[in-house]
Amino acid sequence: MNPVTNCLALDKCSLRSLTLQEWHTLLALNVTSLPQSLPPSIPMYVGMPVILRLRNLSTDLGITNGSQGIVRKIFTSVCPQGLTYATCVYVEFPNSKVQLSDLPKGYFTITPVKWTFTTLLTRPDSSTPDKVHISRSQLPIEPAFAVTGHSAQGKTLPKVLVNLSEGG
Predict the structure, then answer these.
(1) Three-class DSSP labels, the chain
(2) pLDDT tens-digit profile of 53-85?
(3) pTM of the entire structure?
């Protein structure tokens, strides 16, 4: 089995450098209900099914929001605070027409995208929170071990497991 790499979001403050404690505070924020938000972490391993979210990277090649693929290679780096983040992932989109030089057919390079938000953050040496603007960089993918009925509409799925004993 392939090892799991937990790829954290790379958060940056527009006014100052973040301490490790502040970074952990930002990673613990629940921002998933905000529009176009990016997750604080993505556990990944080579061979993991993923879905592209929030972005149409190439409509001509069929790499659009909701496209399903498989992680083939993970590139990471370590920030000055010692936390691991993803710099790039090779994802195979089996139903895509993509053919990039130096990569097998169907492989596409996914790089982090940016999302900005504003929050209150208290410095370790202060009791008064500051209003800060945060720029979060994270891969626009999420694990895809299961899909909802809505996201499955229009897809050709080779195998489907459905519980027919429940529902109306």
Answers:
(1) CCCCEEEECEEEECCCCCCHHHHHHHHHCCCCCCCCCCCCEEEECCCCEEEECCCCCECCCCECCCCEEEEEEEEEEECCCCCEEEEEEEEECCCCCCCCCCCCCCEEEECCEEEEEEEEEECCCCCCEEEEEEEEEECCEEECCCCCHHHHCCCCCCCCCCCCCCCC
(2) 877 776 676 677 888 899 999 999 998 888 899
(3) 0.81
